């Protein structure tokens, strides 16, 4: 009988803890102020460009980042190389099956799984899905609270190994005899998310 009462009390304590766990505040990403840029390198040089965001949110407990994520529209890949005129030929190749296969996989997404650190500087770990393949990535990010009560989350350099997502075109680690005609496995993205409650 004493064991039963103890179990009931324990369940009540757990239930009350769950009931009073504060619910995270959801901040919706402003697509007009948020952006994703990318850089890919090859032996003979590099390319830079952008991809548009479709949606996203950041979840906060007070001012502590607790979760969130975003979706990128892979059909909007643009090669800019520092200018304003896209490289239509390269864009077409990046959208093809050799690279991101956007006809079959029009979206890529990231979901926050863990955040460490306090204040403005944090480390974010989450699941990145490209071409239907999900891999864990970790990167540093900076949080800035703005005067209008929005928050800006910036990750200057997220390093992604494309071969882990089935993108092997001209990869030296896959095609050992490719010589100097290779593209580096790792590319980087920079993400700026401006969100408001």
TrEMBL record:
Q: Which Pfam families match?
A: YceI
Q: Which domain of life is it from?
A: Bacteria
SUPFAM superfamilies referenced in this protein's UniProt entry, alphabetically: YceI-like (SSF101874)
Per the UniProt entry, the signal peptide is 1-24
Q: Does the keyword Transmembrane helix apply?
A: no
**Annotated Lipid/polyisoprenoid-binding YceI-like domain residues:** 26-196
Q: Which UniProt keywords apply?
A: Signal
Record Gene3D superfamilies? Lipid/polyisoprenoid-binding, YceI-like (2.40.128.110)
Which InterPro entries does UniProt cross-reference here? Lipid/polyisoprenoid-bd_YceI (IPR007372), TTHA0802/YceI-like_sf (IPR036761)
Its protein name is YceI family protein
């Amino acid at each position: 009988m004493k064991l039963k009462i103890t179990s009931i009390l324990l369940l009540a304590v757990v239930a009350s803890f769950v009931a009073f766990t504060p619910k995270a505040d959801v901040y919706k990403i402003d697509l007009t102020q948020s952006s994703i840029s990318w850089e890919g390198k090859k032996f003979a040089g590099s390319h830079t460009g952008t991809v548009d965001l479709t949606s996203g949110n950041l979840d906060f407990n007070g001012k502590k980042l607790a979760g969130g994520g975003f979706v990128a529209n892979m059909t909007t890949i643009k090669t800019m190389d520092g200018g304003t005129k896209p490289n239509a030929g390269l864009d077409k190749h990046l959208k093809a099956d050799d690279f991101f296969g956007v006809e079959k996989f029009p979206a890529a997404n990231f979901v926050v799984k863990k955040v460490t650190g306090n204040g403005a500087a944090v480390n974010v770990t989450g699941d990145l899905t490209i071409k239907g393949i999900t891999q864990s990535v970790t990167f540093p990010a900076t949080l800035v609270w703005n005067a209008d009560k929005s928050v800006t989350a910036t990750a200057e350099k997220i390093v992604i190994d494309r071969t882990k997502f089935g993108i092997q075109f001209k990869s030296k680690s896959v095609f050992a005899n490719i010589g100097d005609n290779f593209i580096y496995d790792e590319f980087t993205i920079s993400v700026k998310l401006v969100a408001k409650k």
